[in-house]
Amino acid sequence: MNPSPHERSAADFLPEQLSLRNLREAAADCRGCDLYKDATQTVFGEGRARAKVMLVGEQPGDVEDKDGRPFVGPAGKLLRKALQEAGIAERDVYLTNAVKHFKFVWRGKRRIHAKPKRIEVRACTPWLEAEIRQVRPNLVAALGATAAQALMGPSFRLTKQRGQLMSSGIAPRIVATVHPSSILRAPDEETRHEVMASFIHDLKIIAKEMGA
Ligand code: URA
Ligand code: SF4
Known about the structure:
It contains eight helices and six strands; from the N terminus they run H-E-H-H-E-E-E-H-E-H-H-E-H-H.
């Protein structure tokens, strides 16, 4: 989902010299869409250059927004546990998000996640593309529909294409699975157990493909 040439986007903020460090510094001042206005800070990706797999979430949550790091809140804790169970070492993983600022609505004193609009995802995609170009992972794994659509276009359907090896102009090898927060939202213990098991199943496919 690339912005068209004249559309406002992160493309206007990309550094001249592309390196992960330069990208992170430049992203801190991004005003490519309006989401920077209410959020605390840009939450850029984290991990080694040349990591085997890049995991792409939707956007930082409340904890990530305050901390400045991806996947350090409840969904991140669940993700790290699932990675461990699937035998994926954290040093092989680069963690990032399709959108780099937290979008939320106030409910009382709590900030509740709000789904980013397609135009916001599109505005932020230059950062993700630049991260992929720098890290060059063997596999990009989309966590949830927002990330999958950022990577493969708006017609991607997670229900139909989950767990399949796919490709797009952004990355040659992509697999999509559910977002870890969907497991946190499971209505009861039994369902939660089931959705966690199928998430770990997908992560094992990812473990195999990232080594391929
Ligand atoms: N959910 C995401 O998609 N990304 C994070 O970094 C945290 C929670
Ligand atoms: Fe820039 Fe992305 Fe933040 Fe929008 S969400 S201001 S495009 S970093």
